[in-house]
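Render this sequence as a predicted structure.
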Amino acid sequence: MKKANRILWGILLIGSGVIFGLKSLGIVNVNVFFDGWWTLFIIVPCLIGLFTEREKTGNIIGIAVGIVLLLACRDILSFSLVRKLIVPAIIVIIGLKLIVSSFGSGKANEIIVKNKEAGKEPKVGCAAFSGCNMNFDGEVFDGADLTAAFGGVKCDLRGAIIEKDCVIKVTAVFGGIDVLVPENVNVKVNTTSIFGGASNKTAIHKEAPTIYVNGLCMFGGVEIK
């Protein structure tokens, strides 16, 4: 993903450099600073992220917002109409994402229900305007509920005993969550991201327990490695 991201940005910069060069030589007459040109700083990064990142929701919202603002700058839409519709449109996109993602979280919900029936409660880690470090060396790990709001949470599972599938619920709002996992597990991520995202840097291992990471990233990030 990172390689594809660099390639796309490289192509974009090369194309921009060629256009500026041709314009400077008088070969082409391109008005680079057209009305609403600044919206490209919203549209282009989100468009690249749409092809290079696993989580698409934040990028889709960014592209939609950028295009609507561009149309308003070009007098195709009125700014008064944009102000009225932009928030409802974002809410609808998030709602659709929640509905779609719920169909892929059945296994995780099943694990949570079974743990509750067995009297097993998830470990809780919360950081609000602060930091939180959790270490499970030598402990049997059945799941966790991690929240970072204007802070950071680090959950170290490298020394934990993971005997079966488990769930980690994450909520990162203007904060970050790092989950360090052992090599003998699989990780499946299902998050709703709003101008944020989740990164899964782990490898796939056959016949190994699976850690399901579900939750929300809003102007925040979750990294599993």
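Summary. The radius of gyration is 22 Å. The beta strands are 123-128, 131-135, 143-149, 152-156, 166-173, 176-180, 186-194, 197-200, 210-218, 221-224.
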